[in-house]
Amino acid sequence: QVQLVESGGGLVQAGGSLRLSCAASGRTISSYRMGWFRQAPGKEREFVATISWYSTYYADSVKGRFTISRDNAKNLVYLQMDSLKPEDTAVYYCAGDGTTATSGYEYWGQGTRVTVSS
Description:
By secondary structure, the protein is mostly beta strands. The protein has strands spanning 3-7, 10-13, 18-25, 33-39, 46-51, 56-58, 66-71, 76-81, 90-97, 107-108, 112-117. The strands form 2 sheets. Strands 2, 4, 5, 6, 9, 10 and 11 form a 7-stranded mixed sheet that branches. A hairpin with a 4-residue loop joins strand 7 and strand 8.
């Protein structure tokens, strides 16, 4: 079992930056496919970014503004969010998958709230 705990959310003005962290415990996640998702009030959860051991991929809505990265030595995954917009307001979730599947995630965190004021 893998436990994922997100941190780093908060209130920021439009144009500002935040860095979210996802701390994994229980297993080493260096080979895991990791992702970030978000759910805005009244909306369905949506994909934000993913990182495998060899590539990254982003939703069009965040491309060029958000950066996903990982520190395998510390079992951490990050989401650097720059040029934030009010529409980025959401609860952000970290997810991880250690299988050979190319979609879907085994493990999910509880989320961290990000609020971007205009």
